Amino acid sequence: MSQREGKTISERYKLAVSKYYSIIVNGEILARKTSEAYQDQLLDLIKEFKLVRNITEELSLFSDNEILDEINTAYIPFLNLDYYLGNLYAECLKNPKNEKEQDAVEFKEANLSIAKRYLVRFLVRLDSLEKILDKDQSLKVQSFNETYNPTDEELVTSKDPARKRAEKIANYKREKELSEKFGVLDEYYEKYKNRGVGEELEFDNFDDETIKAVYIDQLKFFSLKSFNLLESIVFEMQVLKNRPTQRPIQDSTPDDRAEDKKVDDYGFTTKLESVVRPDQMKVSDLLSKQGKILRPFTITSDKQALKQKVFGTGQVLPSMSVEEYLDYELAHGKMAQPEEAAKGDSSDDSDDELEKRRWDDWKDEHPKGMGNTKSNIG
């Protein structure tokens, strides 16, 4: 006979919460959260909490127009059902409708959406009861444009880093204070599963007012945790929406290599490959949408060229002197080298010949003794 069979709704709830504390809070199962054993435990708990929730709805334990003071103390713990379900779905990676099918990410986004709905319902319910949510929390819930379907912007706290940090610190201090107040309730749920037959625990002997105060402190604590978890869910869903598809769609374009193989087993084909200039290539020319490499390519870096542009002078400077340039041109045959005059050259264009000609011309124009005025001319 199963431990749950023959139990009242209250006993089934306490057993489920006890198991929740063992797995989620205390990490009793020493396994990764993506492991099959851990995920199976989550699914089992989800089914149990949903069963208890369905029974409470059929029994109509709560009314939409009643406040906290009007609720029976024994019914208050059932208000946490949506919170527990929201936390369980946030951890779940499997498809709750088909336990045999599992993918680490396949159903994560869908489960996060379900977790978001449960947590929002939990907060809206607490806001209607009064005396649980503080003023800022209540205003935030009431600001939802759609009560049970708020947008991501409505769930995220202030975008101001300083204010966001202050809110985180204040919430942490409040969570610590509240957790100390209902610590006795945590111990009660942890011990409830292993208690003896007919054994009463310390919490069972408290008076009604004390028990109700502890339950209310737990609701306040869970409200803080719910706001934090909703913000984490929003960020995680944004990441999952931008992730690449896990199951690539088969490309309908036939593989050219397969066609070539049909023509010739040796791989010969008459099909020409289209030539695309490197500067005209796009990413789609190199990789398909599924990440398949279409043509070989090399990843290069223009870091050095960019560095020269940033730290350079902004203009093109000469890289060699005029003498070096002339030597370079002469070495590569781009300029004709001057021919040295051969020794004993009798060319009329030499300097000596020209000087002699000018001297002969001068003597023809000036006879000997022409400038001697005191002596005879002749």
TrEMBL record:
<dbReference type="GO" id="GO:0005829">
    <property type="term" value="C:cytosol"/>
</dbReference>
<protein>
    <submittedName>
        <fullName>Piso0_003369 protein</fullName>
    </submittedName>
</protein>
<dbReference type="GO" id="GO:0035303">
    <property type="term" value="P:regulation of dephosphorylation"/>
</dbReference>
<dbReference type="GO" id="GO:0051721">
    <property type="term" value="F:protein phosphatase 2A binding"/>
</dbReference>
<feature type="region of interest" description="Disordered">
    <location>
        <begin position="336"/>
        <end position="378"/>
    </location>
</feature>
<dbReference type="InterPro" id="IPR007304">
    <property type="entry name" value="TAP46-like"/>
</dbReference>
<dbReference type="GO" id="GO:0009966">
    <property type="term" value="P:regulation of signal transduction"/>
</dbReference>
<feature type="compositionally biased region" description="Basic and acidic residues">
    <location>
        <begin position="354"/>
        <end position="368"/>
    </location>
</feature>
<dbReference type="InterPro" id="IPR038511">
    <property type="entry name" value="TAP42/TAP46-like_sf"/>
</dbReference>
<dbReference type="Pfam" id="PF04177">
    <property type="entry name" value="TAP42"/>
</dbReference>
